[in-house]
Amino acid sequence: MHSDCEIIWNNCLRFIQEQINEQSFKTWFKPIVPVKLENNTLTIQVPSQFFYEWLEEHYLSLLQRVIRRELGTEGKLEYSIIVDQGDTHQKPFTIKIPLHAPTYKQQHNQPISETSFKNPFTLKNIGTANQSSYLNPNYTFDAFIEGSCNQLAKSAAQAIAKRPGGTSFNPFMVYGSVGLGKTHIVQALGNEIKALFSKQFVLYVSSEQFTAQFIEALRNNSMQDFTHFYLQADLLIIDDVQFLTGKEKTQEIFFHIFNHLHQAGKQIVMTSDCPPRELKGLQERLLSRFKWGLTADLQQPDFETRVAIIQSKMEADGIHMTDELVQYVAHSVDTNIRELEGVLISLIAHASLNKEEINLKLAKQVLQNIVQETHTEVSIDYIQKAVAAHYSVSLEDLQSKSRKRELVTARQIAMYFAKKYTNHSLKSIGHYFGGRDHSTVIHALQAVNDMLDTEPRFKLSFKDLQRKIKFKVPL
Ligand code: ADP
Ligand code: MG
Fold first, then answer.
1. Which CATH number is 4-107 given?
2. How far apart are CA 390 and CA 384, in angstroms?
3. CA nearest to 82, candidates 25, 35, 30, 26
4. Which one of 163, 232, 431, 450 counts the least CB within 10 Å of its CB?
5. Is residue 440 helix, strand or coil?
6. Domains 4-107 and 120-297 share a fold
7. CATH number among 3.40.50.1360, 3.40.50.300, 1.20.1270.60, 3.30.450.20, domain 120-297
8. 380-470: which CATH topology?
9. What is the pLDDT of residues 251-296, one digit of tens each?
């Protein structure tokens, strides 16, 4: 026995089957389950939100026709959507989505990608051929040094380059903080795909550019051009998606572009300065898409990787540096690779200006300038206040000659940081702590080093304080 809704839906299916090819029918209509028929409204259950969007986008007029045919002009269609992620909503829930008004495409009944349209990057009229990718050709896999800090991201990127859209790494999201190589690695992926598959249209865009183009398109009434330009991409790379946070309308359009490309088996690659779950201000439906594929993080480079990067960059510039020097620089710059490159560029500049070799003396000079620049505000005064607050002692006691045990330790630590983060001499440091001589300061440094070696709990609290001082956290 078939219910009314099943009978009606079967009639619809028979009609639809005659109108479209078999593959599409199997993909998009077979999985649909008729749920109920009430007040001339047929409710059908579809497997996902995305499925629903696809039907609306591609089969709207067909669905309108078939509903009118079966249920008359008053007939309506509603979708019941099974929520994909499923933890909280195990059961399908119904959202009432009536058939939409026809879109531009359906009204004009022509695929827009075959017409000429404006390229949002230049706002010139172009056809589909010969687009530029907006990639920097210097960002290659060869120039990207591999280390344990970036191994997963690099191997995933290389796997994708061999079979864009064909791996389960779609979308591919690379995240990590500034200067760790996100842009480099995703552009290397783009360059590699261009080299391997000349017909693939690779497109790189930063999220800021994307947003600016979108706003421009709104202003110029060229939204169709804007969207259809992006829909042609075989590989879309969108850099720094954290800039989309809070930009609702831009997210909306990106969501649609994302869905179309993904469904068509095109590869999407993104970067972000934090993991997807921390991207506050991004719509949930967009976030859930980001989690479909693979996310890989880039971490701070370890010492060995920094050495390898320095060697490769200097070699590329035809400059020789002794191992000792390479290690010295690698030890001194441990934040990120952009900063490391900055130091190397300064080194080369100084050496060529003064027509001298790059040697340890020069390296020390250059690094000192950089270190001084970034640490100018750390004063002994600041260090004393930070240490006093951290160990709950008064500033006067810290600067006094008192030999109470907890005061002695705090004072030694403050001396240690004064040596490490200021340019004061031992003698001068002694002066700031109740007029002690330089041997007291040496003894303090030794005592702190001993405690660091032997007392793990001390070390934890010490590191915490050290971070504050290093980054000059306001007190
Ligand atoms: P992000 O986009 O994460 O801020 P970039 O990709 O702009 O970082 O990288 C900063 C600089 O460091 C670039 O010049 C890049 O070529 C270089 N770089 C980053 N990672 C590596 C690496 N593993 N090997 C060589 N150079 C790197
Ligand atoms: Mg970047």
1. 3.30.300.180
2. 10
3. 35
4. 450
5. helix
6. no
7. 3.40.50.300
8. Chromosomal Replication Initiator Protein Dnaa; Chain: A; (1.10.1750)
9. 999 999 999 999 899 999 999 999 988 888 888 888 888 888 899 9
Backbone angles phi, psi at 19, to 5 degrees: -95, -25
| Ligand 1 pocket, mutate which of 191, 338, 340, 345 (most atoms under 8 A from CB) | 338
Q: Pseudo-torsion of CA 238, 244, 250, 256, nearest 10°?
A: 50
pLDDT at 24: 80
At the top level of CATH, the class of 303-376 is mainly alpha
d(Cα 55, Cα 63) in Å, to the nearest integer? 9
* Atom number of ligand 1 nearest to Cα 149: 23
Cα of 195 vs centre of ligand 1, distance in Å, is 21
Yes or no: say if 348 and 358 are a contact pair by the CB < 8 Å rule: yes
CA pair distance 98, 334, nearest whole angstrom? 57
- pTM comes to 0.60
82 band by pLDDT with thresholds 50, 70 and 90: low
Phi and psi of 296, rounded to 5°?
A: -135, 140
d(CA 31, CA 445): 72
Judge whether 426 and 441 are in contact, CB under 8 Å: yes
Domain ranges in the chain? 4-107, 120-297, 303-376, 380-470
